[in-house]
Amino acid sequence: MALVRQSTLSKAYPMNGGNGLYSYRRNSAYQGKAIDSTKKLIDDSIAKDLHIEELSSNIFAVADMGCSVGPNTFSVIQNIVEAVERKCQYRGLGSGFLEFQIFLNDHAFNDFNTLFRSLPADRKYYAAGVPGSFHGRLFHDNSLHIVTSSYALQWLSQVPQEVVEKSSAWNKGMVHYMNSSDQTIEVYSNQFAKDMESFLCARAQEIMGGGLVMLIVPGRETGCLLSQVCGIMTYNLLGSCLMDMVRKGILSEEKVDSFNIPVYFASPPELELAVERNGCFSIEKMECLVQEKTQLSVHEKSKIVSFATRAGLEILLEEHFGQEIMDELFESLAERLENSPFFDVGDVYNLFVLLKRKPKDQKKVQT
């Protein structure tokens, strides 16, 4: 297939920076546990699917797309570096055979200062920041060996225009799509498909033939009701809290009607279809990650989910509604979570997806 250089415009939705009470750095332990659970999957994938003997240089390039502020990105990178070193040793090449160049990518509004201050002192790689949207090109052709992305691809490049217009997909009174019309859900799904195509097309040009793409994607199990997906349930409860503020006269109804969360939780068939349509990658592995449930009280878990949601959405919410409602909004969310069946019926579903770049032909890339 002919590869077209993408120029997709993508909005930035940065996580809370710094190291404060509501920072992403202090409220991303859940994501960290999921990343830890992929260590063996990464080991096995690199051992089986990465062909060290085909490398043309001793510089090994890895890019983390949507790295945020740490510390989780460093765990992913460390797991990959160690697995590649083990592969080298198995091949009799020695642990110092490769020099690792790590690229940490996120939007320019990401708190790169916190990220760089958190770099491990004992790291065995050279690190560089790469600002920009991963929905477009970021690197030279054939310059990457492994691409990874964790908890980033569920973020859409933009809110689908139809959901904020008075069309059949208008999402009046809601901020996500749990109780929305079929048309609203469809435009969210279509936007995800477009964004995945942009992501895969860009990576197909940047990654070498035989290179690997390792993804952790929060989604939903095939056939699962939207009302049972934890992320969707959380956003639905957040929308209810905002509508309570409308009833109290704190916010206008029009203000809530014009706000929608640009996140889509895809099913495995949707991911498979996106890869198939792109045509540049083969799916080597697609596996649901199993995480142990915590033994915390419902009150404690509600607080954790509220803080984590605030870390991920506060900048987006502040931009639309202003900072002054944030404390009340997330206190209300914690209370709603505690008094809902969220922790009894909610389905946590994260997919580990391993893609391998198919051999490249010599056709010129269209620009």
From TrEMBL:
GO biological process terms on file: methylation
Signal peptide limits: none
Keyword set includes RNA-binding: no
Pfam family, one: Methyltransf_7
SUPFAM superfamilies recorded: S-adenosyl-L-methionine-dependent methyltransferases
InterPro entries for this protein: MeTrfase_7, MeTrfase_capping, SAM-dependent_MTases_sf
Keywords (A to Z) from UniProt: Magnesium, Metal-binding, Methyltransferase, Transferase
Keyword Metal-binding attributed: yes
Gene Ontology molecular functions: metal ion binding; methyltransferase activity
Protein name: Uncharacterized protein
Organism: Erythroxylum novogranatense
